[in-house]
Amino acid sequence: MTGPEDASLRWHDDEVVREFTLLITPTADDIDELGHVNNAVWVRWLQDVATAHWLAAADAAHVDAYVWVVVRHEIDYLGNVRAGQPVTARTWVGDAPRGARFDRHIEFTGPDGKVKVRAKTTWAIVDKQTGRILRVPKELAARFL
To answer: Percent of the chain scored above 90 by pLDDT?
Structure first.
């Protein structure tokens, strides 16, 4: 997986990135004692995919000014994935933000076409300089909707 901090993921124009996908292949370190991807790894991947989408869609000024924090995760584990079995992560923001928060949807689909994990996460935006939560700027939200 390309790291979410990879500068090649950043757009430098006004392109809207409503839906974002990332291919992830689990390694042996991601596998638990039952032989499949550990639940904690799925949570890490939720953050990695969301961060990669943020870097792909947000302009540089927004990336420099804001950071996102997770407020809530809802995760449905629907199937198992083993080391070396790739999954395609697909994420999107379904609705306009509510104040400082918005819901992000993520699905991880296996090569068999079946969704293995489905999640809805709620994120809040924080001003990096002040450390305070703020209302999501309309021009920022527009890049994801």
So the answer is: 86
